[in-house]
Amino acid sequence: MTSTGFAKIAVGVDFSPSSQNALALARARFPGAQIRLLHVTDARVTTSPDLMGGVTPAVFDAGLLNSLEDADARRLASIMQDGEETEQLVGDPVTGIVEAAARWGADLIVVGTHSQGALEHFFIGSSAEKIVGRSHLPVLTVRLPDRRS
Which end of the chain is flanked by fewer CB atoms within 10 Å, N or C? Predict the structure, then answer.
């Protein structure tokens, strides 16, 4: 356990500068903690909304999904450090991160936040906000430093 009381930290990774910053912060602020990198290959790229508010498969291409998973696995392995663990899932990123962190017994979830325009935020919301809202675990959201300062 670290001096902060967080022994197991799940970090949501989507390979963006924001998530890389969140991972760097988790490593620096919580030395001695177990870190698990969680990545969810977004299966929603192969689905579309239906009239009832659910989703239906678009043109399901298992080969495309396998290619995405393989590429993501290579990227995940390239950023992992000694002693860290990874878990790769397929599905909705918000649900995947929340459920994987709880299943692992994490004490804290760390995620990066993305800058969005007001219209984009209104229609699709923030994944980080959704994780905060759905998780029963504490969630640390990390913004990219302001480049103007």
Answer: C
Q: What is the CATH number of the domain that holds 137?
A: 3.40.50.620
pTM over 0.85: no
Residues 6 or more apart whose CB falls under 8 angstroms from that of 86 comprise 36, 37, 38, 39, 76, 77, 80
Instruction: Confirm if 36 and 84 have CB atoms less than 8 A apart.
Output: yes
3-state helix, strand, coil in the chain (%, to 5): 40, 25, 35
3-state secondary structure of 84: coil
Q: How far apart are CA 12 and CA 91, in angstroms?
A: 14
Q: Does residue 148 belong to any structural domain of this protein?
A: no
